[in-house]
Amino acid sequence: MGIAKILGIETEYGVQAAGPDPDPIGASSALVNAYATSVSQRTAWDFEDESPGLDARGMPTVSGMAPMVETHLANTVLTNGARFYVDHAHPEYSSPECRTASEAVRYDVAGEHVLRAAMRAANERGMGVGAIVVYKNNSDGKGNSYGCHENFLVDREVAFGDVVRAMVPHLVTRIIYTGSGKVGAETPSTRSKGVEFQLSQRAEFMEEVVGLETTLKRPIVNTRDEPHGDPRRYRRLHIIVGDANMSQVATFLKLGTTALLLGALEDIGISSFPESPQDPVRTIHELSCDLDLSAKFELVGGGRGSALELQTELYELAERYVRAGGAECVGGDDEANLILSRWSHALAMLRSDPEALAPSVDWIAKRRLVEGYRARHQTGATDPRLHAVDLQYHDLRTERSLAQRAGLETIIDPAAAEAAVTSPPLDTRAFFRGTCLRKYPAEIVTANWDSLVFDLGTDPLHRVPMMDPLRGTAAHTEALLARCDTASQLLDELGS
């Protein structure tokens, strides 16, 4: 049986600060610090277990090539179990671990609330960097890309080569319903084609099929081997190829389809998966520019396929897997059937009537806005105002966001999203982390995904490990935490 697909999203937000010499790092730090101050949450991140240079292929890494851990930048951990910090020059919200794709969408929406609150707090306080605006997008229009990374718990016994082989066909072709859309192009090779609009913001920045980097030579499948759990049992698949979505449905499909296919890989094996494109990097670049979804590409085993054809094969594989009893890995029958239903509907509409998906697929919703603006103002395809429309689609200011006016379907109850800003998920270890941070904030000096460090005022410090993402849930620890009024009581009970 495939293991539970614990999952989450790390979103690097675009940030714009007013002034003659805008400083994105200063603006990002202002956002994190202002929010942490406003909610009295100053718990530092524990970098003890950070090892971004470990490679899942077992390859030695070249010093300086692996992603750097920036310990000196603003960093805090929230009572909902999430991490909010500065990554390079961006504010990043890393959601808590979630048991289902539906729950992960809820905490992704909560992240948007956190960034809006941070924006308000920083601008009200006047943090010395000018007025700040935050965007949930993937590029700055000047050739710089930043990510929306997905994370999935995977059985360590599955060979990493099989993970790559299974995931590449999916990650390359799922942009037909997960792409957030983009006016024009930023990389020289795509610009040279005179591209007016793309399905994906992120696709043209992919440079390798497999690799360790996240900011250079960006790979379709990232090999960073930080399980954030027991390394003998788990690996964490870290996916950097996806777009940041404004559509909740697109986020759900992005996470749900991938989780279901990973479960199928663990239970059924690699032989059931379709062949990969012969040149995945070139294919994802070309598919991003293929607005009518008709492009064909060479497959490794011979023959040609389209994105819709590969996605149909993958859907049929996932459906067989669920019907054979595989639903539990994504949270049960209801969740699995919802993934399949949404996936099937998206593929059917992409074949017959793509415009009908405007309420759920970002690139279709954005293209409709762009085309409407062009028609009203009689602009050319390269008019800079179209890029402004693109950017404004991702504006987190509710009153300015074009995504808010695009008629996107919402699947998360607003009250549930608001609650997720401060309360952790119940069914992963994030419950223990978040509840401890709320209940014993003065005694927790640092936290990370798999441990908390307590300071009771006497030597030594006390580290509480959390190596299993499915331990520390409400079912496991709620009664314990309720009866322990102090951190000292909690540690005594845990020690006994």
Concise synopsis of the structure shown:
By secondary structure, the chain is α+β, with helices and mostly antiparallel strands. Helix content is 39%, strand content 15%.
Explain what you see:
The protein has 496 residues and is an alpha+beta fold. The two termini are 33 Å apart. Strand 16 (444-448) and strand 17 form a beta hairpin. It is built from 15 helices and 18 strands. The protein has a six-stranded antiparallel sheet. It has helices spanning 24-38, 101-125, 160-173, 175-178, 188-191, 248-268, 280-288, 307-326, 333-352, 362-377, 384-393, 414-419, 430-439, 474-483, 487-495; strands at 7-12, 14-17, 44-45, 75-77, 83-87, 90-94, 132-135, 148-155, 182-183, 197-198, 208-211, 219-222, 234-239, 296-298, 304-306, 444-448, 451-454, 462-465. It is globular and about 65 Å long. Residues 60-69 have low confidence and may be disordered.
**Mean of pLDDT:** 92
Query: Helix amount, in percent?
Result: 25-40%
What is the count of helical runs? 15
Give me the side-by-side strand order of the main sheet.
4-5-6-1-8-13
Supply Rg. 22 Å
Structural category is: alpha+beta
What global shape is seen?
globular
- What's the number of extended β-strand segments? 18
Question: Which descriptors apply to this entry?
Answer:
496 residues, alpha+beta, six-stranded antiparallel β-sheet, four-stranded mixed β-sheet, 18 strands
Question: How are the secondary structure elements laid out?
Answer:
Blueprint: E1 7-12, E2 14-17, H1 24-38, E3 44-45, E4 75-77, E5 83-87, E6 90-94, H2 101-125, E7 132-135, E8 148-155, H3 160-173, H4 175-178, E9 182-183, H5 188-191, E10 197-198, E11 208-211, E12 219-222, E13 234-239, H6 248-268, H7 280-288, E14 296-298, E15 304-306, H8 307-326, H9 333-352, H10 362-377, H11 384-393, H12 414-419, H13 430-439, E16 444-448, E17 451-454, E18 462-465, H14 474-483, H15 487-495
Parallel strand pairs: 3-16, 11-12
Antiparallel strand pairs: 1-6, 1-8, 2-7, 4-5, 5-6, 8-13, 9-10, 14-15, 16-17, 17-18
Helix pairs in contact: 1-2, 2-6, 3-6, 3-7, 3-8, 6-8, 6-9, 8-9, 10-11, 13-14
